[in-house]
Amino acid sequence: YTLANNITNTSNCINVGANNIVLDCAGFTMQYDSGGTGADAIVATSRNNVTVQNCAITDANAAGAEGIGILYNATTNSTILNNTIQTNGTSQNYGIQLFSSANNNNITNNSISTQGSSSNNHGIYLLTTVSGNTVSENTIRTNGTTINAGIRLESSANNNNITNNEISTNGS
Asked: How many CA atoms lie within 13 Å of 140's alpha carbon, on the beta-carbon side?
């Protein structure tokens, strides 16, 4: 699937509903969460072999919390490649999140900027029993008051390969 236009939505923009999908944004912009409800741009849940590439993703709301650019929840053997992601909001904003048994994925060559005004704004967040993932060649900038990380691993995020990422954080 290749985007042919920009997308703007008050909540999530795309929910991947099948395995073996390539979503190529071809440089088009995806603006999510203009309603400020804590939405995500692209969500893949319980999927296999999904690729998201060449997307320009922006959180449209600077006042809301809990916005994620790309969320892979229990998604395996998949790729996130060559995307530009900008989150906004107060707290718990993540550029990319691998969650709950999201294993053997490849996150490469993405440019991520999280612009929270409070805490817990992470560029890439691996959470809850995720393993075998490769995170490499990403440029990550985070902003917030406390607990901001370029790459955060938490709760049984084991045996992941993290190499050659450029990270700059603002806040503690």
From this structure: 26
